[in-house]
Specification:
Blueprint lengths: L2 H15 L2 H6 L2 H4 L3 E5 L1 E2 L4 H4 L4 E2 L1 H13 L3 E2 L2 H10 L6 E8 L2 H14 L4 E4 L2 H4 L5 H11 L4 E2 L11 E2 L3 H17 L4 H15 L3 H7 L7 H9 L3 E4 L10 H19 L5 E3 L9 H7 L4 E3 L18 E2 L6 H9 L16
Parallel strand pairs: 1-5, 1-12, 2-3, 4-5, 5-6, 6-9, 10-11
Antiparallel strand pairs: 7-8
């Protein structure tokens, strides 16, 4: 942990102890703002140790939900939150909870907790891997490399790895993953080809791929599972069909159209809210989204949404097991916004 981050956390702890958090949470400034929380996966096994910025353990997630309940935060459905933000009628301490992608672990871990606490949530669902229900190629390869970080790999021509390579550090593994991805792209690999490539990687590493399949560790929910949760009240919204944002208008809008039609067929509801995959927000997308009747779009840039926010560039706070609870509480109260952070301006193209 950097010296700067350690200093920020120490300041947050001191501020919480001195009741500054409660003062910030009760302020008129906070009451006019909406914090949109962003989650991805909730660990079934050790995924939160592998990617702690995008995966959160179930106990960590529950600690957030418990805090929201105990401190009397108003957790609103996304549509209502946006509407009340626009009309200036937000209740104090307003929060929206969103999850990206649609991992199976959402159904297994997050949904029961949300039900227990009575909180609504929005799921931004990417749909290709829901129908093709296998482990997501790049994620499962990355996870297997991490699980075998005490080994070396290669040379392996069948994987596009030209020499023996260490897996010891994150940078080592990222290089191997880049070679795997480049090999798949160069061979114009289909989803089935990529799945076979992932299985080949598992064999070379001595990793139990069948265990990964049984646990559905990096799978998305199946269509019937999405439909089941939608009937129970889950709000399912747009996240592109293949988790990509082409810089071509027709291809970009095809991603939205395919995603929307899939969700409409599955849930019976027409989604109008969008989340940029991997936070890839560019201004060129704004008119394309408007043409597709997209009402709002969220990023992964940490800030509060205000009545002046661009509805196609709404900020969210990305939470994961890498965030200590004191930091999350600081954001919920609004106090953490007083600390310096990087600003964000989306590129023109």
């Amino acid at each position: 942990m950097s010296v700067l981050r350690s200093a920020k956390l120490a300041l947050l702890r001191a501020s919480r102890s001195s009741s500054l958090y409660r003062v910030a949470a009760a302020s008129r400034w906070r009451s006019s703002r909406l914090l949109i929380l962003c989650y991805h996966g909730v660990a079934l096994e050790d995924e939160h140790q592998w990617q702690s910025n995008t995966f959160i353990s179930a106990p960590d997630l529950e600690s957030r939900l418990r805090y929201l309940r105990d401190e009397k935060y108003e957790v609103l459905p996304l549509g209502e939150g946006i509407r009340r933000l626009t009309t200036g009628s937000l209740p104090p301490r307003s929060v929206v909870i969103t999850f990206d992608d649609g991992f199976y672990n959402f159904k297994e871990r997050a949904w029961p907790l949300l039900q227990n606490y009575g909180f609504p949530a929005t799921l931004y669902l990417t749909t290709f891997y829901s129908t093709y229900n296998r482990p997501i190629f790049r994620l499962c390869c990355s996870y297997m490399l991490w699980r075998n970080r005490d080994k070396t790999i290669g040379p392996a021509a069948s994987l596009g790895i030209p020499r023996a390579m260490s897996l010891a550090t994150r940078w080592d593994r990222e290089l191997v993953l880049r070679l795997l991805t480049r090999y798949a792209t160069a061979n114009d690999s289909s989803a089935a080809d990529k799945d076979a490539l992932a299985q080949g990687l598992a064999r070379i590493l001595g990793f139990d791929f069948e265990w990964l399949l049984r646990r559905r560790l990096l799978h998305l929910m199946k269509p019937d599972e999405v439909a089941e949760l939608a009937v129970k009240g889950l709000d399912v919204q747009l996240h592109t069909h293949r988790h990509r944002t082409p810089l071509d208008r027709d291809l970009f809008q095809k991603e939205i159209r395919d995603n929307r039609n899939w969700i409409l067929d599955c849930t019976g509801k027409d989604p109008v809210h969008f989340c940029y995959p991997s936070g890839q927000c560019q201004r060129v997308f704004f008119p394309w989204l408007s043409e597709m009747r997209v009402a709002t779009a969220t990023t992964c840039q940490p800030a509060f949404a205000t009545s002046a926010s661009n509805p196609l560039m709404l900020p969210r706070y990305l939470d994961g097991s890498d965030k200590p609870l004191v930091e999350v509480e600081g954001w919920l109260t609004g106090f953490a916004t007083l600390l310096p952070r990087k600003s964000f301006e989306p590129p023109m193209q």
